[in-house]
Design brief:
Layout: E1 17-21, E2 28-29, E3 32-33, H1 37-51, E4 55-59, H2 77-87, E5 92-93, H3 100-107, E6 114-116, H4 131-138, E7 143-146, H5 157-160, E8 168-170, H6 172-186, E9 192-196, H7 205-214, E10 217-220, H8 225-231, H9 246-259, E11 262-264, E12 268-272, E13 282-285, E14 294-298, H10 300-311, E15 315-319, H11 332-343, E16 347-350, H12 354-361, E17 370-371, H13 375-383, H14 388-391
Parallel strand pairs: 1-4, 1-7, 4-6, 5-6, 7-8, 9-10, 9-15, 10-11, 15-16, 16-17
Antiparallel strand pairs: 2-3, 12-13, 12-14
Helix pairs in contact: 1-2, 7-9, 7-13, 8-9, 10-11
């Protein structure tokens, strides 16, 4: 499915100031980037702009600042340093976003220079899409490039604002993300197996509905499985559940049956008496969860069932873990699914969020066809929703 917006290839950037929204929302520990996936993802567009003689001004958010000013632990300086380390480029950094220091740093740029502005969310007006924020940012550039797919679903100042004042183009990452995630549903090679995990049915209701319309098999795991168990009349002990969504879960099971779509739910589970690093798991069948136990992972029979379904797939879409994979004793289900996808002869799309963390944890990132950098954005695209950041760009 062809991308319908103009890309950076269509822009005249020679000698121009290019204001580029990237997604450098990276995890930090002691001021060091612990996962540079998102920084790496932005490099092709940055490299293109540098090679085409642009003055590159990069902006991003990081974490969830309170919006009242500088917070050192959420500075973008480590991300700028990581970009310099990965590319070998000199990368300038200014500890300012909307003030005189930022304007002066931009004015001093020469063609081929790269500047990273400080965290856009240090000012609470960013999240409110305040027009004053957009005007200030737009004043730094002649051209605006959006390459932050992970925030393209947010109508915020640095994501959509500059497009009101500058010609706006997509970067290479944004183009590839949208093409890949829309293309998989437009004409997937079949069998198409979708895997959805995570904690809540309510947060992925639109995604589940859309997948029932397009997939051949839908595999469900994680906390949301227990709401489906309730819809089947099982008891789930103290497992995570959403009572208000039981009827809706039942409707989805019926819809899938009517459409001939196979929904696979766990047949056994690893349960524990409490949620904690010291919790010990035991295996029980899905219709026999004790009242004083909570589900923490899919069981061994389910791992085999799911791996077998994935083995025959030609296209796989995966979003969400099968259990509390952050705790090693409850990671086996997520790892089994991850390895099954890696070993399958399929086109595999990993839909952002915790699935990416899982793929990285098990060292299988290089076995996947495409790993999305955006959790929320990828889910909204899968639902068929328009992304505000993409809509604001120039039409091709």
């Amino acid at each position: 499915m062809a991308f319908t917006k103009k890309t950076v290839r269509d822009a005249d950037v020679d000698g121009k100031r290019v204001l580029m929204r990237v997604d450098f929302n990276v995890p930090l520990k002691d001021g060091v980037v612990t996962d540079d996936t998102r920084v790496r993802a932005a490099i092709p567009t940055i490299q293109y702009l540098k090679e085409h003689n642009a003055k590159v001004i990069l902006m991003s958010h990081l974490g969830r600042p309170d919006g009242t000013g500088f917070q050192p632990e959420l500075s973008l300086r480590p991300a700028a340093e990581k970009l310099a380390e990965l590319t070998g480029y000199e990368v300038k950094f200014v500890e300012d976003t909307y003030g005189e220091k930022a304007a002066e740093a931009v004015a001093a740029l020469e063609p081929g220079d790269i500047l990273v502005l400080e965290n856009v969310r240090f000012d609470k007006r960013e999240k409110k899409n305040d027009p004053e924020i957009a005007k200030t940012l737009a004043s730094y550039g002649d051209v605006f490039v959006l390459d932050a797919f992970g925030t393209a679903h947010r109508a915020q100042g640095s994501v959509v604002g500059p497009a009101a004042y500058l010609p706006a183009y997509a970067g290479f990452l944004l183009e590839k993300e949208v093409d890949t995630l829309t293309g998989i549903f437009a004409d997937p090679e079949r069998p198409f197996v979708a895997i959805v995990g995570g904690s809540k049915v309510s947060s992925k209701i639109g995604v589940l509905d859309h997948l029932i319309d397009s997939a051949d098999t839908l595999i469900i795991g994680g906390g949301m499985a227990y709401t489906f168990f309730l819809a089947k009349g099982y008891t789930v002990g103290s497992s995570l559940k959403e009572e208000d969504w039981v009827e809706r879960a039942g409707d989805m099971l019926k819809k899938a049956e009517d459409k001939g779509v196979k929904i696979l739910l766990p047949v056994d589970n690893v349960v524990a008496d409490h949620f904690g690093e010291d919790a010990e798991g035991e295996i029980v069948d899905s219709d026999k969860i004790p009242d004083d136990r909570m589900g923490m992972d899919i069981g061994p029979k389910t791992r085999e069932l799911y791996a077998e379904a994935i083995k025959g797939a030609k296209t796989v879409f995966w979003n969400g873990p099968m259990g509390v994979f952050e705790m090693d004793q409850f990671a086996a289900g997520t790892e089994a699914v991850c390895r099954a996808v890696a070993d399958s002869d399929c086109t595999s799309i990993i839909g952002g969020g915790d699935s990416v963390a899982a793929v990285n944890k098990f060292g299988l990132a290089d076995k996947m066809s495409w790993i999305s950098t955006g959790g929320g954005a990828s889910m909204e695209l899968v639902e068929g929703k328009a992304l505000p950041g993409v809509e604001a760009l120039l039409d091709a």
